[in-house]
Amino acid sequence: MASADQLKALLKSHLEGDDGRFFSVAMQVAAHEAKLGHGKLAEELRALIDQAKARRGLPPQSGEKAIPISRPRGDLANLLTVSYPKLRLGEMVLDDALANQLNRIIREQRQASKILAHGLSPRRKLLLMGPPGTGKTMTASVLAGELGLPLFQVRLDGLITKYMGETAAKLRQVFDATDRTRGVYFFDEFDAIGSQRGLANDVGEIRRVLNSFLQMIEQDESHSLIVAATNHPEILDHALFRRFDDVLHYELPDEAHIAAMLKTRLGEMAAKGVSWKRLANTAVGLSYAEVTRASDETLKEALIEGHQEITEEDIRRTLNERQQILKRLKSR
What we know:
Helicase, Ruva Protein, domain 3; globular
């Protein structure tokens, strides 16, 4: 239960019309309930707070420091890493189709109580597929940031063991956590446990783990988001796809998106006459992560050299370096 001081603070802030203080204290009450092990109550309080903010035109957690209401303890500490991202969807460069999919997921989550009241379910089991560096990991952080939820990254090094039955037991702990503590649960490199059961190099334990995952995700009725990401969708077991509410496809950026990224990151220091279109043509084939890395390298070089502006040739040089690195990696 809320302390006497918290109750007084809630009433005072309500009477004074101080919404910021009211929501802050209400979140403290939710955090306190979570620490006492009242996960369902804490989740319900957070949902009510988000609904109240939505009516005032405020996004969930707007203007507040994320309050850590739960940290993995005991065995879970070796299975989950928690963070509280601040990223927003507007910080990603996405094609229209992918942006619409993510917007729909976020809207459904924010209106979850309305959807559930009509016997429907908001999208919350997501499979992200695409090449490395195209935004899959960032998407998990954005979903957590937009919804004001903790991001729990599943540690595969702690999850997968050589002992028969142990991995499935640990997987059960993760799914139990999704019910106790609402959050975004992120399985990166998902193909490590989701590969086809008929592959020649498959082993019995991995088949059992996949079967366990299929069963657990189908039975999961929590309010958490379960997000799996893979660079190798071609080796995923076909039975997995129908267990997810939505499948999101990520691609390498085209010239228009590369140009937009470069201009956003380097435009303030760029010299007059820089052609973002020409530079984007140089960067075709690079991922979002590689374009970002090249931009950062350009900025660092300018700072070290004491340059007040960045030329087109400066940017092209770092993009070409990334292309050479990519070429060497592909030839190995």
